[in-house]
Design goal:
It is found in: Periplasm. The protein is built from 9 helices and 12 strands. It has 242 residues and is α+β, with helices and mostly antiparallel strands. The two termini are 29 Å apart.
């Protein structure tokens, strides 16, 4: 987060929406080039939460705008990491704004939970997760994929994701693309292009703080980085009461 703020200081311009009754003059003077999405009173007396588009992490600012705090805010009485709660809520809100028609969905026959996974074809652990897809579905976990070609928008992963999203049958195309990328078996999916959400999903992943793939988002907005076997994931989800 500190890196974001110091980088932002060298940029220009700032727009804001939904600003609460907090003095942002010093913030605006110091932190430029970021977009304020929401400002609201914090549970911590005298502090306000400022949410910017470029990161899911909240910034805490005093009402007079003089003091700014970053990092974890913990309620020691309740034993709750308030920052983590805010981040999860933010991620959940952003994921819920994505239309399912822009996802690749493998629905569990007896659905009990839903996960949203940022994935790409040139990621070994993404391919491992996908190769065990039937195990997740058997556990009652529906898997919804969003594209995150983490190597960038000029990578093979990006081209694969675009071809998958532009195909007539995304599920079959993703299966084929993963199989080919893993062991060069079968045929490479035909290259296709169309009006697609891959670049937008890539940008969304960056905004949410995704740093690698697979990135598993649970229904409460909490993020699990990396591959997790189906049965272990089921236990983690149930421990959260989801």
């Amino acid at each position: 987060m500190k890196k974001l703020l110091w980088v932002a200081m060298t940029a220009v311009g700032l727009s804001s929406t939904a600003v609460a009754d907090v003095n942002l003059k010093h913030f605006n003077d110091l932190i430029q080039g970021v977009t304020i999405e929401k400002t609201q009173p914090s549970e911590i007396e005298g502090l306000y939460e400022v949410f910017v588009k470029e990161t899911p992490y909240p910034i805490f600012i005093s009402k007079d705008g003089r003091y700014m705090l970053e990092g974890n805010a913990v309620d020691l009485v309740r034993g709750i990491n308030l920052s983590e709660t805010y981040i999860n809520s933010h991620i959940k809100e952003k994921i819920n704004q994505v239309n399912e028609k822009d996802m690749v969905i493998y629905k569990a026959p007896k659905e009990e939970q839903v996960i949203t996974v940022f994935t790409t074809t040139d990621c070994p652990f993404c391919r491992m997760l996908h190769s065990q897809l039937d195990e997740y579905l058997a556990e009652g976990i529906t898997v919804r994929y969003l594209a995150f070609p983490y190597r960038g928008l000029n990578s093979q992963g990006y081209e694969d994701m675009v071809s998958v999203w532009c195909s007539d049958n995304r599920n079959e195309s993703l299966n084929q693309a993963v199989t080919f990328a893993e062991a060069k078996k079968g045929q490479q999916i035909p290259a296709k292009s169309c009006n697609n959400p891959v670049a937008d999903q890539y940008k969304l992943a960056l905004e949410l703080g995704v740093q690698g793939t697979p990135a598993i988002i649970l229904e409460d907005g909490s993020m699990i980085p990396g591959y997790v076997p189906a049965k272990e994931l089921k236990k983690r989800i149930e421990m959260k009461g989801l």
